[in-house]
Amino acid sequence: MKRAVYPGSFDPVTYGHLDVIRRASEMFDVLIVSVLNNKMKNPLFSVEERVRILKEATKNISNVQVDSFSGLLINYAAENNIHVAVRGLRAITDFEYELQIAQTNRKLSGGELDTVFLTTSLEYAYLSSSSVKEIASFGGNISECVPDFVAALMTEKYRKRGGVYEQQD
Ligand code: PNS
Q1: Per-residue pLDDT tens for 120-133?
Q2: Cα–Cα distance, 100 to 93 (Å, whole number)
Q3: Contact 168/42 with Cβ under 8 angstroms?
Q4: Residue 153, Cα to own-chain centre: how many angstroms?
Q5: Global pTM?
Q6: CA dihedral in degrees (7, 25, 113, 52; nearest 10)?
Q7: Residue 73 CA: which ligand 1 atom is closest?
Q8: Mutation test of ligand 1: which of 51, 54, 69, 73 has the most ligand atoms closer than 8 Å to its C-beta?
C-alpha cells in the first residue's frame, strides 16, 4: 500500500488544496490529509473544525483520510509508516520555503521522508487561505475560492468577530 501525507494548516481548505488532494489521491493508495495542530496563534477555525471541514470536502474521495498532528512532521510520518509527503507549489515564491522544508525533513528523517510536489492548476494558482480570509472578512465574494459550505462557515465566523481579519503568518 502506497501511503502519503498531505500536511498543512488548511485554515480553511481552498479549491487549490482540494485540487492537490484529488490529484494526489489518484497517485497513492491512501492519502492522509493532516492538519498541523500547533502553528497558528489565532486561527479562524479550530483544528477540530478544520478536520470536520476537510472530511466534508473530501467525502466523495474514498481513499482520502483526514487527521491532525502536533510537532514534527517526520515523527508523525514515522509513527504512521508514511514515507511520502505531498505539497502543492503555486508559484516560484513558494519554492524556496518548500525546498527548505523538504530538504530539512529528508535530512532529519535520515532519508525516510521524501516530498513530492504537485504544481497547482493554473486556475487556482492565485489562491491562498490568507487571502481568502481577508476577502471574506471584508464581505467579499469567495465563491470561486472555497466550497459553498466553507464560505458560509467563514461568513458566520466573521459575523461573530465583527469582520476582524487577523494576519496569522
Ligand atoms: O499550510 P502550511 O501552513 O503552509 O503548512 C506548513 C507545514 C504544516 C507543512 C509545515 O509547517 C510543517 O510540516 N510543520 C510541522 C513542523 C515540522 O515538521 N517542521 C520541520 C520542517 S522545517
Answers
A1: 999 999 999 999 99
A2: 12
A3: yes
A4: 17
A5: 0.95
A6: 30
A7: 18
A8: 73
